[in-house]
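Run log, item B.
One chain of 306 residues. Sequence copied directly from the ordering sheet:
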Amino acid sequence: MKSWFVRSLVSVACAVVLLGVAGCGDVTESAHSDSLTTHVGVYNPGPVGVSRPRVGVPPFKVTAEDSDDPAGQLNEIAADAMTTLAVQSGRFAVIERAQLEQLLREQGLEGIVTPGEMARPGQVRGVDYLMIGKITNLRVKRANVSKGFGLAQVNLPGGGDFGGLDIQRRKVQLVVDCGVDIRLVDPTTGEVLAAHFGEFQRVDEAKAMGVEILGASAEADADVEIDSDSHGKIFRLALDEALRKMLPQVDQVLLTRNRATPAVVPAALVAEAPAAQKASRFCSQCGQGMAGGAKFCAGCGTPVKE
């Protein structure tokens, strides 16, 4: 009886000491939380002097393994993440999703877009392009079994344990896998102007990804449960990588669009300008108006051919 009591005291003492150590470690490592998301949304500048097209981001299509999402909440979370990244890229004038839905509704065009798909072409007043996307086969799983101490791992003499609290849960190594497909589409024609498809995989601690685990098996390769905010952070990581790779195509689209759109000079300014400075011709490269005696285009520097 005495020896059983002593062993019980030793077990409890060890649990308390290790819990304190793990708690202190968590404080010192808090600065490393979300370290993988530090550079998300930070991109090289786009082309100088080009106009920003108006872009809408309809709900994405998200398919996740072993996930029940009947309300399509993940579709909207992914679209919101893409909206934020599109704004941060500095390439677009992004229309809020609620405003885009209102525009489509007012013009009777709700059916031209389904989640992740351009159902049919249609001219949408107030929108130049749509950013459409899919996230497929999303899976978040445990990479390996934590070697740290967990209260759930302490068995009391005589049976029983401390419950399901695992103090190493935030340090669990996670593997995130999904396919990412994003496309910049002209809604009028349905033409895909820029696109990227690839596989996203990231292996790191849950804390580094900014992911909060709601439930996880102790076995490796087991799916874990995360909340909606954590899904949003994973989508930002995956979509940031895809958008970063697609930006060179986007920049080419913007440059081509800028060259195809002649600069419009207000009539009042033309009327008030001296006769020698009136735009009598336009640049063959960028379409900007040029004065009669100009030798170079003021917009792009192209020499004027006499």
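Observations after the first pass:
- The two ends are 109 Å apart (CA to CA).
- The longest strand covers residues 129-142.
Flagged for discussion on Thursday.
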